[in-house]
Amino acid sequence: MIKRYLLLLLTHLVLGTVFAQIQPCGTDEMRKQLIAEHPEILQVEADFEKQIEAGMRRIDFGRAAKTTAIDQTNNESFWYDIPIVIHIVHDYNVYNTSTFTGDFIPDDFIFNAVKEWNMVFAMQNGDTADVIAPFKKWIGNPRIRLHLATRDPLGNPTKGITRRRSYLTYSAGQLAKFDGWPPTSYINIWFINRMSPGSNAAAYAHYPSSVGSIPFYDGIISLAEYMNKGSKTIPHELGHVLNLSHLWGDNNQPTVACGDDNVDDTPPTKGHATTGCTAASIFDTTCSRNYFKIYTDDLGNIELVNYPDTNNSQNIMDYTYCDKMFTKGQARRMHITLNSNIAGRNNLWDTMNLVATGAIVPFPDLKPIPDFTVTHITGAGNYLAKNANFTFPGRDVKFTNYTTNDTLTALSWTFSNGAAIPVSTSVTNFNNSFAEPGWVTLTMKATGNNTGDSSITWDRALFVADKTGRNMADGYFQEFNSGGDREKWPLFNYYNNEFFWQPASVGMYDGNSIMYKGFDERVTATAHPHTGSPKGDFDDMFSIPVDLTGFGSTCNLNFHYTGASRSSLSGSIADSLYIDYTINNGTTWVSLAKLGKGALFNKGAMNTAYTPTSITDWAAKTIPLPAAAITNYTTFRFRYKPGVSAAGVSSGNNFYMDRINFSPWAAEVSTINMDKINVAIVPNPTKGDAFVLVNDVANTNVHVTVSDITGKVVYTIEEPVKGKQARIRIPSATIAVQGMYLIQTLTGNQVNTQKLVVY
Ligand SMILES: [Zn+2]
User: Ligand 1 centroid to 247 CA: how many Å?
Assistant: First the structure.
């Protein structure tokens, strides 16, 4: 039988504006954003609201509709078991369980928080005793039991917790929703360190009507601080997931205007700020004086229900932090939602789903999952990153245990590379140092509480630099060829994502260079990444320690580069290459240069992944070194920070470097003006004549030998040095074949061999 209801509602509009600095919830704002991107959501919402209204009418009259096997809407004793998964998006910031700061939330704290949430959803939270008299009879029992899943989507055993390290924990939004499990099978709840700038919300969720077509955003994202701070932030957000609105409605801020949430036993209200836990708020009658409803059915039966004439400020869907209750109407609204197929909510508690997710089996005892960080102890020198670090021989670094998934009874750490402590049994943290250069191998063996051992080995736990600086005065070029020493220029993708330094199989002339992969393969004209963003990322390449003392007081860092941007708007290109050096084993890093826009992207904007195709694509860069950098043990760091143009999309494309060297001359020098002994070949690369520039105070003869790649001598010449300088021509006819040549220059003082490239 169709029933209609008539709503009589007296409202008192009172204008006033009080904005809290931290909003407990950003759900309304996110709803608006999703509707702006997907206006069709409005229709879905309207249709779903009709379903809800139809269901609400049934409870208003207490006349149960037919209950089917799968529809438990009117079963007043049915409990809804729901699998959940907790995603910890972190940067290894230890979580303080008293102040709730940090982001690496321990397992036990999570287990306890879930218990607390479940108290609320079983109406067992003790503070319902403090609910004011008018609302005691309206306290509702949601009859919901949340269960950390014990099976992941692949059927593997789990404790229903995932952990992922990401810089997005410091600037989190939709793109930080990593590792989401199917939201029709699990409710996903992400915890992060900070929301993205501009959001002052503690948490937010999405209504089921918003996410049916955008499943990867479905769920809750919350500051780690609010997991279980005392306020009921997560139960509030779960209310949104199950289609509860704020008491004052969806479309305004609290405390602004009287509004309603389409739940009859929550009287109209303006809502209250977080500071509203006062008698004035709790007994606030604004908007709700003389609040009653008259219901009539098709037979003409009329019923008047006199609801409380005060606001339900202690409701979990208000913003006061004295939130204690859901109402019966809210519980009903959640139950109707759980019996709807909207966004698959009715699958969550389906028996088959509970079996597949292992939601109602005993919680498993699983082996520990070893994990660690390594950090510098003092003078961190801009090392924001933890793990996969770079250090110097003999320098202490700190190892910290981040093992999870089980209670530890023992832990053993085993190191290579001449570790001062080859084996440690610390279960917390300790300092260690390494005498030998190269990658350090670390094995962690964790013994769980009656679950046995689990062991993980990292082959690249840490890189130790060479003990002495390599002499750069002999014509050293880093060309990233396999035969060279490129392995001593370690690359770090600190956050293990898709933007990082990597060897490239294309070079200025020899098929090898180093590339920063900034092109985001996940972004096309019609698709964008659901999770992840370059914003906040940084990745390092370190040089071999160099000895520059052979150059006297003048020396340049030279390299060739080529790159393209993704964005064609110059103002949107935000990629940067920071070049820094250290002369004190990484205690301090000194800025040498910051390159961006045209200094990185000489090829303009491209929509496809950029790969250079010609030697003419490459440009030369020369950065003069300050005197302080010219030591016998200087190390350079190339830190790339990929930029973001809009909506989390990368602004950069691929960037390449090649032929890094140190020289008194610029990368493409055409004049010589020196007072030291030195040799340069210019231009290099060339497509015509080349010149050997020699500066030699001894004024002896210079002998130049040109060999091709096979070692065959193709040209020799001997010329005197006059006035300390010589400029010796290598005719283009003698180097007519494209490729690489070796130029050996013999003076009275030195032998110098350098490569010359002809294209
Ligand atoms: Zn909210």
Answer: 9
Query: Which of 20-24, 621-625, 647-651 tops mean pLDDT?
Result: 621-625
Quote the ligand 1 centre to 533 CA distance (angstroms).
Answer: 26
Q: Which architecture characterizes domain 4-58+83-130+138-356 according to CATH? A: 3-Layer(aba) Sandwich (3.40)
The domain spans of the chain are: 4-58+83-130+138-356, 372-464, 470-663, 678-758
Interval between CA 91 and ligand 1 midpoint (Å):
27
Dist. CA 236 → ligand 1 center (Å): 6
C-alpha distances (whole Å) from 519 to each of 523, 559, 654 are: 9, 22, 5
Residues with CB under 5 A from ligand 1 (ion): 25, 27
Q: Which tokens hold the place of 126?
A: 């003790």
pTM, entire model: 0.86
What's the CA-to-centroid distance between 227 and ligand 1, angstroms?
A: 15
Taking only the tens place, the pLDDT of each residue in 69-114 is 467 888 889 999 999 999 999 999 999 999 999 999 999 999 999 9
Task: Tell me how far the alpha carbon of residue 204 lies from the centroid of ligand 1, in angstroms.
Answer: 6
* 641, amino acid identity: K
Between the CA of 521 and the centroid of ligand 1 the distance, in Å, is 35
CA of 244 relative to ligand 1 center, distance in Å: 9
| Residue 29 CA to ligand 1 centre (angstroms) | 10
pLDDT greater than 90 at residue 56: no
**Total residue count of the chain as it appears in this document:** 759
The CA distance from 57 to 466, in Å, is: 77
**Pair 651, 565: CB distance under 8 Å:** yes
Q: Which CATH architecture has domain 470-663?
A: Sandwich (2.60)
**How far away, in angstroms, is 208 Cα from ligand 1 center?**
14
Sheet (strand 701-707) strand order: 713-720, 701-707, 739-746, 751-758
- Please give the CATH architecture assigned to the domain spanning 372-464: Sandwich (2.60)
Same fold, 372-464 and 678-758: yes
Q: 615 C-alpha vs ligand 1 centroid, how far in Å?
A: 58
From CA 413, how far away is CA 444, in angstroms rounded?
5
Give the CATH superfamily of 678-758: Immunoglobulins (2.60.40.10)
Is-contact 749 677, C-beta < 8 A? Answer: yes
User: 195 with 23: CB under 8 angstroms?
Assistant: no
- Residue 246 Cα, ligand 1 centroid: separation in angstroms? 6
Tell me how far the alpha carbon of residue 209 lies from the centroid of ligand 1, in angstroms: 15
Model pLDDT for residues 460-486, shown as the tens digit of each residue: 999 999 999 999 987 788 999 888 899
CA distance 291 to 310: 9
Q: How far is the centre of ligand 1, averaged over its atoms, from the C-alpha of 271 (Å)?
A: 11
- The H or E element containing residue 121 is helix 107-121
